[in-house]
Description:
Layout (H helix, E strand, L loop, with lengths): L2 H15 L1 E2 L1 H8 L3 H13 L4 E4 L5 E4 L12 H14 L8 H13 L3 H13 L14 H10 L3 E7 L2 E9 L3 E3 L2 E8 L4 E6 L3 E6 L17 H4 L7 E8 L1 H8 L8 E3 L5 E8 L3 H10 L4 E5 L1 H17 L2
Antiparallel strand pairs: 1-3, 2-3, 4-5, 4-9, 5-7, 6-7, 7-8, 10-12, 10-13, 11-12
Helix pairs in contact: 2-3, 4-6, 10-11
Amino acid sequence: MTRSQRLMELLVEINRRRRFTAGELAEAFGVSKRTILRDLQELEAIGVPLYSEVGPHGGYRLVKERLLPPIAFTEEEAAAMFLAYESLQQLGELPFETETRTALAKFYSFMPADAKQRIDSMRQRIAFKIPKRPVGSPHLKLLLSASIARQPLRILYDSKEGAQERTIHPVGVYAENGFWYCPAYCRLREDYRLFRADRILEAKPDEGSPSDEPSADVHLGDWRQHASDLFFQWVTLEVRLTRNGVRRAVAEEWMADGIQVNEDGSGSYAGRIPKQDLSYFACLFLSMGTDAEVIEPVELVDDIRDRLRQLQQQYL
């Protein structure tokens, strides 16, 4: 067995045992205790979190978390991993940002020179542009961890009414337009609400929360279906689109599935939107100018007209 092979198998064995002595490993691999000690030092140098204990019952153990076994990647798979990382950089913050950087640094250090050159070249020739926001989301990792563990959190949230304490059961987190969002069941409202992560001022596990898990079977894709009509009041949206309007509407993710295109390239959209978001849609369709004409709902048409009158008065 070569030394590199032994190091890989040693890492798997350490991960399996969790607690061990150098003598036990030396016997298992048929080498001297001195050789094993050198191997352990090399594993520590590349980041394996080992902790040594002295005394008659001493030895070694892994610190914190379990390690994954070694995995072989092709050069194309390695490039794909770095590409995925680059696509997330414009978000500004990631739930496991430090760990991601550390993992890729280890990965990069073991790549051959020509593979490194290809990765460096790729970084210079592809970019993902996402609006950068001047606000931070320091509790992002906790929100994600709580959603996975189904753990309630006690938060201080900067709402329209001011800072309020809430107990929430996070469903998950997602990024959109440069912001991070966390849908969650809110104990205060007894319903699902959407929280912007950067507006969560404080967050900690809530050990005193009721034991039931209202969000246990709810996922990011269907949490709105579990919200009551008091929060999501849906209205029908119908819009006529010019040819250029169709091209612009397709770029809006929420509109893509509801667009009907005519032979001349013009088209229309029909679907449902939350009533409480009418102001957002008014601004959106105003920005599209004559390429979009809202037919219904009437409330949205009236909102657009009011905004046009205000705009006209501003520039008289």
